[in-house]
Design goal:
Elements lengths: L1 H17 L2 E7 L4 E8 L12 E6 L2 H17 L7 E5 L4 H7 L12 H20 L2 E10 L1 H6 L12 E5 L7 H11 L4 E10 L2 H15 L6 E12 L3 H13 L8 H8 L6 H16 L7 H13 L5 H12 L5 H12 L3 H10 L11 H14 L2 E3 L2 E3 L27
Parallel strand pairs: 3-4, 3-5, 5-6, 6-7, 7-8
Antiparallel strand pairs: 1-2, 2-4, 9-10
Length: about 425
């Protein structure tokens, strides 16, 4: 009963800490106060050294909750990282249109739109970066007029945003040509998502589709682009389909190894399985600014590919990764034990499996499991007969036969609630 009450208290404390808060910021650029809604990740307090990506949402009144729900759901499956979500209040239609005001000749923010542009880049972002632990990776999202407005940040010489979620944008004159030109000239990685629908506002559709055609002609390898044209959706309902698509596009590299990725990209390799794993997490760090340890399920997927393709030498490379990232666990000893076991160097394999007993268990890698492996190795070692050693034939098939088609454990995205 005592443990039950402790559990309830913990759940309540986490819920309270992770709930949204509203702050009022004084803006010199706007010459006014502006409310912002902030939601910190649930693990923000328990990971005091960790930094989180930032998502800035325009039109917070009706876009914040749909984004928040999708993020929490994808976080549960570990498909996208936790992030700091900030919504800018634009309480009245008149205010959002004034915030998005642009020069008809250049298509860039002007007058009140220029002030709002400077508020975000010159006041809000510095304020957030000073107060919260924000990773280098930042996203901005908006709908119709604010979606058109957010393209202005593409013109910054030093990009303030790495990803753009443009939902049914209302585009200024010639922006269907100017945006592709800016993307083509980008010298840093940029994620760009836009969406429309067959029931979208007619005055937007032609420009959006023309913009899509022009972006498709951009050959810049630094541009990661996705476009959705939804069927049977309206200007407003397309948002509910677009948000998860945009988030999964932006964070595709972050996702755990799936069965599809294993079958189509990993097990078909002739070699380089450990390198594949190492490169996957280097891409996450380089493109998303997120430094993280290799997931245990991802280790298992690579282990299974190594066993299936009999590339046993790669267990040694895998051990270098696991030893660096989980030094207190028995994972390094397990990988080195597998390396020597598959090479038929059984005494060395036994030594590593026995050394693992002094390390911490990790995932489903337990002392009991390693003890079983050690006993199996002992049974296969040469035995003395009349004072002489007689070798026992070692089976060609590993003691633990790996699955033939899929990773040892179903990847994270296939878990069931």
């Amino acid at each position: 009963m005592k443990n039950f009450y402790l559990f309830i208290i913990l759940c309540i404390s986490l819920s309270v800490f992770s709930q949204t808060t509203i702050e009022e910021i004084r803006s010199v650029k706007l010459n006014a106060n502006r409310d912002i809604t902030i939601k910190l990740p649930t693990s923000y307090q328990s990971n005091p050294e960790k930094k989180f990506p930032l998502l800035v949402i325009l039109d917070s009144e009706y876009l914040f909750n749909p984004f928040e729900g999708n993020i929490l759901y994808a976080n549960y499956w570990d498909d996208i990282p936790e992030m700091i979500v900030v919504g800018i209040h634009q309480n009245k239609n008149q205010e959002r249109y004034e915030d998005s005001e642009f020069d008809v000749q250049t298509g860039l923010p002007a007058k009140t739109g220029g002030a709002f542009f400077e508020f975000i880049g010159g006041e809000l972002l510095p304020y957030l970066e000073k107060k919260y632990r924000i990773a280098p990776f930042k996203i901005v999202a908006g709908l119709d007029s604010t979606a058109g407005f957010l393209n202005s940040f593409l013109y910054k010489d030093i990009p303030q945003f790495n990803a753009y979620i443009s939902l049914s944008p209302e585009l200024a004159k010639d922006m269907e040509v100017r945006i592709p030109a800016r993307l083509a000239a980008s010298k840093t990685s940029v994620f760009y998502y836009q969406a429309t629908a067959d029931g979208d506002l007619k005055k937007f559709q032609d420009q959006i589709r023309e913009l899509d055609k022009n972006i498709m002609l951009v050959k810049n390898p630094l541009v990661n682009y996705k476009f959705d044209d939804f069927k049977n959706a309206s200007h407003y309902s397309l948002v509910l389909s677009a948000i998860p698509n945009a988030l999964y596009q932006i964070f595709a590299a972050f996702q755990p190894i799936s069965t599809q990725e294993y079958n189509e990209k990993i097990v078909v390799l002739k070699e380089g399985y450990a390198d594949y794993l190492k490169n996957k997490y280097e891409v996450i760090e380089k493109s998303l600014g997120i430094k993280m340890n290799v997931r245990l399920n991802d280790f298992k997927a690579i282990e299974t590919a190594i066993l299936k393709n009999e590339a046993y030498a790669e267990f040694e490379q895998l051990a270098q990764i696991s030893g660096q990232q989980y030094p207190k666990s028995m994972l390094y000893e397990y990988h080195m034990g597998m390396y020597y076991e598959m090479r038929k160097e059984l005494p060395k394999a036994l030594k590593y499996y026995q050394n693992a007993f002094m390390k911490e268990e990790i995932g489903d890698l337990t002392k009991s499991m390693l003890m079983d492996k050690a006993e199996d190795i002992k049974a296969r070692l040469p035995k003395k007969i009349n004072g002489k050693r007689k070798a026992i034939i070692v089976d060609e098939v590993p003691a633990e036969t790996p699955p033939t088609e899929t990773p040892a454990e179903t990847p994270t995205e296939e878990k069931k609630p």
